[in-house]
Amino acid sequence: MDKNNKFLFELFELIKSEKETLTNLIDDFYSLSPDNKNLTERIHIKTINNLYTDKPTKTLNIKGYELSRIANEFENIESMPNELKDNFPDLTTDDWDAFRRLITLIFCSLEIEKNENKSK
Question: What whole-number distance in Å separates Cα of residue 58 and Cα of residue 31?
Answer without folding.
Answer: 25
